[in-house]
Amino acid sequence: MNERRSFVKLSDTQRLDWLRLIRSENVGPRTFRALINQYAAASKAIENLGDLARRGGRSDLRIASRAEAEVEMAEAKRHGVRFIAVGEEEYPARLRETEDAPPLLAVRGQISALTRDGIAIVGARNASAAGVRFAAKLARDIGEAGYVIVSGLARGIDSAGHSASLATGTVAVLAGGHDRIYPAEHFGLLEEILKTGAAVSEMPMGWEPRARDFPRRNRIIAGMSVGIIVVEAAERSGSLITARLAVEMGREVFAVPGSPIDPRSSGTNRLLKQGATLITSAEDVLEAVAPILRRAKPPAKMREPPEDEQPSPPAEASDTLRMKVSRLLSHTPVSIDELARLADAPAGAVQIVLLEMELAGRLARHGGGLVSLA
């Protein structure tokens, strides 16, 4: 079947409901997906959020109001920002594959840049002159080969990659809202990026980036890319977090070797010891990703039905099942299928109990469909 047929287009009302749902308390990308799987429509999920949280032990869950969502939509429009849903055609195809893909991606610039195959270039903020020069050469050569360069708009290696690929297209992934550019000194660079590329964020308008927001940004960088290049990175750096996330997503990880006495290369050298592909030119990267790109891309996921279509009623959970699931859970992650088997209950009913606990702040979701007590 032609992949194009699997895409949907949200109505304005549905898009507003999606924004309300993802901006509500304790609703992250994985929770959002679970809610849509249960209730089919974001509007139905919103109607049930309060009851779910109360059954999980929380009576004061903050649910984003329609007025709040309308204000954010209006502010986004004022800044030239569009919200693209994960089931829509313009959504980055590889990011869509990931478990915690943002349900709505706020995009500014050339939307077409998101539909191209991306290769990420990341590295040290306090990069050496040689590192900056090599990152720029990689970005220029890879861009000229037809790829869009993806990075995080940070100082050093990130900005070198963006600057060198302005002519061919680059995507900046932001840690904050579109109106809170970090670092502020890169405002001019971002304006240049938007002429041929794009900027994306999952954070609300007005959101000032905090330390914990950068790993969230890094997962989007890794998710959007077929492969990620680390040019310089110290131990315990954000670039190594991006590389780890890339490995978990099944992406190719490339590293540029560096001097063993330069701390800015300790992280990249360790990546090479752990199995990353050593590169000394753009050709090394292009040869490695070519076979991957010949594989078919998966169709869109998490589709919301048309507004006039009545979704099936969700499963229901009993107090007895709630007690069973609570007893079975611990701080060690376990699969939902295993929970359902041990509780001798339908997976849909177990999922309802998990949603109740999660909205009450008692449950944590992990990769691979695992859950644990928070």
Write up what this structure looks like.
The protein is of the alpha/beta class. It has 3 domains: 3-106, no CATH class; 109-293, 3-Layer(aba) Sandwich (Rossmann fold), CATH 3.40.50; 319-373, Orthogonal Bundle (Arc Repressor Mutant, subunit A), CATH 1.10.10. It contains 15 helices and 12 strands. Strand 11 and strand 12 form a beta hairpin. The protein starts with 11 loop residues before the first helix and ends with a strand.
Our estimate of the beta-strand percent is 5-15%
| Multimeric state | single chain
Average per-residue pLDDT, rounded, comes to 93
Report the uncertain regions: 1-5
CATH topology of the largest domain, which one? Rossmann fold
Q: Helicity, in percent?
A: 40-55%
The CATH class of the largest domain, by name, is Alpha Beta
Question: How far is it from the N-terminal to the C-terminal residue, by CA?
Answer: 41 Å
| Number of discrete domains | 3
**Secondary structure: number of strands:** 12
Q: How do the SSEs run, as a string of H and E?
A: HHHHEHEEHEHEHEHEHEHEHHEHHEE
Largest sheet: 9 strands, mixed
Q: Tell me the CATH architecture of the largest domain.
A: 3-Layer(aba) Sandwich
Strand order of the largest sheet: 1-2-6-5-4-3-7-8-9
Key features?
single chain, 374 residues, alpha/beta, Rossmann fold, Arc Repressor Mutant, subunit A, three-stranded antiparallel beta sheet, 15 helices, 13% strand, disordered N terminus
Topology:
Elements: H1 12-22, H2 29-39, H3 42-55, H4 66-78, E1 82-85, H5 93-97, E2 104-109, E3 118-122, H6 129-144, E4 148-151, H7 157-164, E5 170-173, H8 187-196, E6 198-201, H9 213-224, E7 225-230, H10 238-248, E8 252-255, H11 266-273, E9 277-278, H12 282-293, H13 319-328, E10 334-335, H14 336-343, H15 347-359, E11 363-366, E12 370-373
Parallel strand pairs: 3-4, 3-7, 4-5, 5-6, 7-8, 8-9
Antiparallel strand pairs: 1-2, 2-6, 10-12, 11-12
Helix pairs in contact: 1-3, 1-4, 2-15, 3-15, 6-7, 6-12, 9-10, 13-14, 14-15
